[in-house]
Amino acid sequence: MRIVYGCNSQGQGHLGKAAVLVPLLEARGHDVRVISSGPTPPANYQFSWHQHVTGLVYAIENGHADVGRTLRNWFHSSPALLQSLKSLRRMIQEFQPRLIISDFEPLTASPLLDPPCEVVSVCRQVALLDPAVPTPAPTSIHARLVRTMIRLFTLGADRKHGYHYSPQSHRCVPPVIRPELFSLRPTVGDHVVVYNHSFVMDGEAERLIAWASDRRIPVRAYGFDAFPRGQAGYVRFQPSSRQQMLLDLASSRGVITTAGLTTPAEGFLLGKPVCVVPLPDQWEQQANAVHLEDAGMAIGSDHWDYDRVLEAPTPADDDPGRRWLTTDADTVLDVILGATAVETRQAA
């Protein structure tokens, strides 16, 4: 079956899921074309067929979501967006896919695309719009605008599934966890993992270095893109590497990270204390933090208080949430493919 897989490239959570699901689709014999949009993807994400196009990127200013600048940027980039949409429509016409899977990628889930096949939106953000999943009320105009953007990014989907930390709705699916995580044997080391990607406030790297020196705690830091890689006092600023970050997580004493989907779940499954810091004015991340605390997977902090990771509890080995979170990716893929997968198997 011919499938188009749309992937948002802002942050690495969407790309990380694509790196698991696309090879599984290809292993089943499907012909998959990956379309990504947003910032230029890191070179360590490779797919058999991949095209990167102009997309809709959130503007981040000094650690905060800047909705006004985001909307202005979208307006100014509209000619390039229209060209990307035209290019995508030509590819769809030539490729004739049976299915489009969109992971928070706004062009492949746009009603303007109007493809001759089913479009499935599957992303964390869909769960936040699910009426069966309680979410905190937006408390600011910025937060309400973020929620509106989420609706915009999934507007053209025929079917929607949201990655969630528990099965609160029939539309929820478990987060896609990298299979290599389950082959690791976690140990308790001395270092803390800090993951602060793309949203770093001015001076935050220096503050982390001072905290680590004061506490005499080694740190493996990811993100902090403007800071040079290498050792700075007790902090080792690591280059972007999915595999190395997983190894550092497995041997850490705990992790403090932005309130995304994947890293908190991986830290929890590795038995690590987890602290999450939601991006200010980013309703999606604020909802993630609430859901993670409600599930007992992490504690939250409204700023980068590194002492909080030392206060976070260690997850229990028999935590009931582990069963849902360890659902294998093939099972998740069956839900995403839905009736299309059944029709394909019957035809075979």
Task: Describe it.
By secondary structure, this protein is an alpha/beta fold. It has 2 domains: 196 residues, Glycogen Phosphorylase B (Rossmann fold); 137 residues, 3-Layer(aba) Sandwich (Rossmann fold), CATH 3.40.50. The protein has 13 helices and 16 strands. α9 links the parallel β15 and β16. The longest helix has 18 residues. The relative contact order is 0.13. The model has no long low-confidence stretch (mean pLDDT 88). It is an enzyme of class 2 (transferase). Its EC number is 2.4.1.227. Pfam families: Glyco_trans_1_3 (PF13528). GO terms for molecular function: glycosyltransferase activity. Keywords: Glycosyltransferase, Transferase.
Question: Helices and strands in order, then pairings?
Answer:
Elements: E1 2-8, H1 13-27, E2 31-37, E3 50-53, E4 60-61, E5 64-65, H2 67-76, H3 78-95, E6 99-103, E7 118-123, H4 124-129, H5 141-153, E8 159-163, E9 172-173, E10 192-196, H6 204-215, E11 219-223, E12 230-232, E13 235-237, H7 242-250, E14 254-258, H8 262-269, E15 274-277, H9 283-294, E16 299-300, H10 307-311, H11 321-325, H12 329-337, H13 339-347
